[in-house]
Amino acid sequence: MKRAIGILCFFVFVSGAFSQDKIVEVGEELNYSVYYGFIKLGEVKFKVTGKNKEGKNELITATASIKSFDAIPMININYIFESIMLTEKNEVRSAKFTATEFKEKSITNIYYTFDYDNNEIKTLKEVDGKSGAEQVINIENKKKYQDGLSLLYNARLQSKSDKTNQRFNVPVYINEKESSVRYSFSSKPEEVEIDLEDYGIRCVRVAGVADFVGVFGLTGEFGGWFSDDDYRVPIKAKFNVTIGSITLELASYKKKNWKAPVYK
């Protein structure tokens, strides 16, 4: 389970001049196929499920699922993640995170609560309904953390920044310890082709390095492409995992008023 909280990691991934709601839109559903070469290993699904106020803060809730196909030998991956994110200007940070791993005969839940007022992270692990001891970790230097899922939405927002030539070094809390991810965005649009569309899509490229180990051994260098428009929809990504390099590719979506931009 410790190796699992993280692909989401990037995909496994600002000025006030654009609408944050176009990127973090309640009801958005993004579904991806996962390939190892030409072999389809499984699916990854993201959904923004809610948005509400808590005092002066706006909270956004998103979920993700990662599941390998039953017919693939030696690979058994089945996770559900939920992140509650605090919005801050045109960024988000993690407020609560839940990871659920389904195995053949057991279910494991891990809970993170980020208490920024008291500079603490509270963690709790639960196996088949039996809870272990709660741990409390001190937050140093008033850092604002991402979890493996909030990281995706924060990176989408940052890709709209007028500082896209900047290299971002983002604190991440994964596997019950602090880690980080470093990435930057291309300054020129790139063309990306996927099976879903019969034309090249205009994209912004993100490239970086994960300093942690995530789902299926994800770690190290990665690359991804967001749509080069106000919506910054993740189109495609490549990661290094236990068996080698895998590719995630947008297979279907539900998003208001969005169509992938044409590369010209």
Describe this protein's structure:
It is a single chain. The chain is mainly beta and 264 residues long. It has one domain (20-254): YmcC-like fold. Helices cover 5% and strands 52% of the residues. The protein is built from two helices and 16 strands. It has helices spanning 20-23, 150-158, and strands spanning 29-36, 39-54, 57-68, 78-88, 91-102, 107-115, 120-127, 130-131, 135-138, 168-174, 177-185, 190-192, 201-210, 220-227, 234-241, 244-254. The protein has a 16-stranded antiparallel beta sheet that branches. A hairpin with a 6-residue loop joins strand 14 and strand 15 (234-241). It is globular, with a radius of gyration of 18 Å. Residues 2-18 have low confidence and may be disordered.
